[in-house]
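To illustrate the input format used throughout this study, we show a single complete record. The first block contains the structure-token representation of the backbone; no residue identities are included at this stage. The design step must infer an amino acid for every position from geometry alone.
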């Protein structure tokens, strides 16, 4: 298995172009199943999760062509197979559950293997399922599979008991072809949900309230395939800004939507960084007043849970106390024991982590436990004294396009080494 070898301590300088958003591209790729004909998607990042979802839709009858050099994905849908999505695919990526909405809407039936637990908590799918039930579907759980079926879906009023990105996206995809009007309440307002909604509207869906907590969808008979460009990845953008900050360098990220990372930019400002931004770029540089702060994760527009591990890493190397409160997922502190191995002084109390800033981390062999925890270790290694080797980097391959190449382009000393016994 490949691993990273990183020599820390070099301030990163320069600019990086941000790729398309993984979490927007995933539901959009699946939503292409809602229309017959050829959908063309631009700015699709070349990532393991994207290649997995492509396999899932191919399994269901779509034909695809992914030009990874141009980040262009063509999807051709002629006839959909109502096939069961196998456990091998679902277990590597929970977003496979997204096929339920479109399949149910188009074929009246969908069977997906129940996603198991995962490294960052229990992650149930009950909200997705009760939403389908409210629209008239019957749900059966058998042999580890979830089967949803409906002779036809009808519009419904449904309030989600908790804000869920996945459930909001899945229910929108089911509702666009349902009979009548669906009103979804307590919706996620994440840019990824808005991007999916914009794609569906371009296909002919009637949706209002995108980007608010109440989305209204008037079902239509049929949708048409379109060409669409995916928004930039705000989590990749944030990770690179933090990479610049943690090495006390000056980084500019290009091709981004600054509003999507406003919560992070506010936090970096509080921590003493100078933040400048234009229409589609942001740059961050250090001042002589760097300090820790308090960060509480929250659904958008709050601070994203996907940047919790990266910001904790920055806080653990900033003078003073830094407090991180995780409110979205339980068990999302798996990076902490690894950061401690590198000299971080972090105490955990329930869902609160308190870091006492150390001047410098020190290199140690460490292991990624999930995608964003993995990014945190890369950030730590960029700051640490010495050479850090990081294993299980396939976690980062799921969500960062050419991470080591992009970091090298701004001066990081990082090498992806093939092989290794563990
Ligand atoms: C998505 C993102 C993930 C991000 C998360 C929160 C994708 C592919 N993944 O995950 O990167 O960290 O949003 O911003 O877009 N919940 C339930 N029942 C459900 C669904 C969710 O209890 O049926 C709970 C979850 O356990 C969690 C909270 O709701 O505590 C939010 O989860 P959700 O927004 O659904 O996360 P995902 O869509 O899985």
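Output of the design step:
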């Amino acid at each position: 298995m490949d691993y990273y070898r990183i020599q820390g301590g070099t301030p990163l300088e320069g600019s990086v172009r941000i790729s398309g958003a993984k979490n927007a591209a995933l539901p959009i790729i699946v939503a292409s199943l809602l229309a017959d004909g050829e959908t063309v998607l631009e700015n699709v990042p070349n990532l393991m999760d994207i290649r997995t979802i492509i396999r899932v839709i191919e399994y269901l009858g779509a034909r695809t062509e992914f030009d990874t050099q141009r980040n262009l994905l063509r999807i051709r849908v002629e006839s959909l197979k109502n096939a069961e999505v196998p456990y091998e695919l679902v277990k590597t990526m929970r977003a496979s559950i997204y096929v339920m909405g479109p399949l149910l809407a188009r074929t009246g039936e969908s069977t997906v293997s129940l996603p198991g637990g995962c490294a960052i908590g229990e992650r149930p799918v009950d909200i997705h399922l009760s939403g389908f039930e409210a629209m008239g579907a019957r749900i059966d759980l058998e042999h580890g599979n979830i089967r949803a079926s409906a002779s036809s879906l009808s519009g419904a009023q449904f309030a989600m008991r908790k804000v869920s990105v996945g459930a909001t996206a899945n229910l929108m995809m089911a509702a666009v072809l349902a009979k009548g009007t669906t009103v979804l309440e307590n919706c996620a307002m994440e840019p990824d949900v808005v991007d999916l909604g914009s794609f569906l509207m371009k296909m002919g869906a009637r949706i209002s309230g995108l980007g608010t907590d109440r989305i209204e969808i008037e079902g239509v008979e049929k949708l048409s395939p379109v060409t669409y460009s995916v928004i930039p990845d705000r989590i990749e953008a944030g990770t690179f800004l933090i990479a610049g900050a943690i090495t006390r360098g000056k980084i500019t990220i290009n091709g981004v939507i600054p509003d999507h990372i406003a919560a992070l930019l506010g936090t970096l400002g509080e921590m003493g960084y100078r933040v400048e931004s234009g229409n589609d770029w942001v740059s961050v540089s250090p001042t002589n007043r760097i300090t820790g702060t308090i960060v509480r994760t929250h659904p958008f527009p709050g601070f994203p849970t996907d940047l919790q591990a990266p910001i904790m890493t920055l806080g653990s190397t900033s003078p003073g106390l830094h407090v991180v409160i995780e409110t979205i997922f339980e068990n999302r502190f798996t990076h902490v024991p690894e950061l401690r191995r590198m000299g971080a002084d972090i105490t955990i109390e329930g869902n609160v982590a308190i870091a006492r800033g150390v001047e410098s981390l020190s290199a140690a062999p460490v292991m990624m436990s999930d995608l964003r925890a993995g990014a945190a270790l890369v950030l730590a290694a960029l700051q640490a004294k010495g050479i850090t080797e990081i294993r299980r980097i396939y976690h980062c391959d799921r969500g960062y396009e050419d991470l080591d190449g992009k970091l090298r382009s701004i001066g990081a000393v990082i090498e992806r080494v093939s092989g290794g016994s563990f």
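Structural context for interpreting the output: The chain has two domains: 3-19+232-417, 22-229. The first strand starts at residue 3 and ends at 7.
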